[in-house]
């Protein structure tokens, strides 16, 4: 099946009480590991590309890799999504360049500016049947070169969501309820918490409307331990507990963004391999197990967190 937008996926996910995994892709092994897991488990999938990924791997290489994945995995719906588009221009570029979904991220801009720019993106994207995600509230953590300090983070205000969605026409809304980007989401000793009350209030005001969670890696402790065991230094890396993400997926959350867990799976595997095989220097030798580590991690997410196995 050709690339799809997120409309139908989200409708089914909302009604079925599960979420779709949106995984960030940066190279071939990452694309392959993710898609193989989804194909085997018959899980719908969003492959997302950040501005940083486009800078690193180039738009054409990434879209061609995703096109190859579509051919190799014909049984599952796959959407190609722009992650954190910071302007109308980058969103337009991705619509023109074959993406089926884009995020306009105006969350750091004043409200009216966010509304105006998101509306412009929707107006353009919908002409090409491309779906649009936008964001209200501010997540803490690191994206690209932007680092939002904890004290600058801001929960989504439920009083704004109806007005925002109505005026912009967006197809889904990312909200801030305590998740954050990167591998350090909570301080050691701090009890991980998400504001489910805000999620509930938002969904009460937007019945049937798909909500998105960014910064939703669980920072799987096994990978952190392995990284630290084999020479890495990631003390105190802490993620969102899986049961909280599962709970959110049963509610209005239809898209759960995962990048850090992919990075951790890959890094842990490569560190271990090279530590155990110091004389090896063929990248295929360490990238093959890294790809398998990604596949196994994604398969675990699909069953333990997203609940989307068999929903393709
Ligand atoms: O939201 C951030 C994603 O993890 C993408 O990260 O901008 O370093 O590619 P990146
Ligand atoms: P994580 O850093 O928790 O994986 O979040 C990724 C993300 O939100 C991409 O947009
Ligand atoms: Zn994000």
Q: Would you report the number of β strands?
A: 10
Separation of the first and last Cα atoms: 11 Å
Percent strand = 15-25%
Tally of separate helices: 12
Order of helices and strands: HEHEHHEHEHEEEHEHEHHEHH
Relevant CATH superfamily = Aldolase class I
CATH architecture: Alpha-Beta Barrel
The hetero molecules present are: glyceraldehyde-3-phosphate, 1,3-dihydroxyacetonephosphate, zinc ion
The chain-level structural class is alpha/beta
Lateral strand order in the biggest sheet = 1-2-3-4-5-8-9-10
Largest sheet: 8 strands, parallel, barrel
Helix content: 40-55%
Shape: globular
Low-pLDDT residue spans: none
CATH class: Alpha Beta
Q: How many separate structural domains?
A: 1
Rounded Rg: 18 Å
CATH topology: TIM Barrel
Average predicted local confidence, pLDDT: 96
Characteristics:
312 residues, alpha/beta, TIM Barrel, 8-stranded parallel beta barrel, two-stranded antiparallel sheet, 12 helices, 15% strand, binds glyceraldehyde-3-phosphate, binds 1,3-dihydroxyacetonephosphate, binds zinc ion
Account of the protein in words:
The chain is of the alpha/beta class. The protein has a single domain, classed as Alpha-Beta Barrel (TIM Barrel). It has twelve helices and ten strands. The strands form two sheets. An eight-stranded parallel barrel has the order 1-2-3-4-5-8-9-10, surrounded by ten helices. A two-stranded antiparallel ribbon has the order 6-7. Helix 3 packs across helix 4, helix 7 (158-168) crosses helix 8 (196-205) and helix 11 (260-276) packs antiparallel against helix 12. It is globular. Bound molecules: glyceraldehyde-3-phosphate (G3H), 1,3-dihydroxyacetonephosphate and zinc ion (ZN). Glyceraldehyde-3-phosphate binds at residues 24, 50, 52-53, 83-84, 143-144, 181, 259.
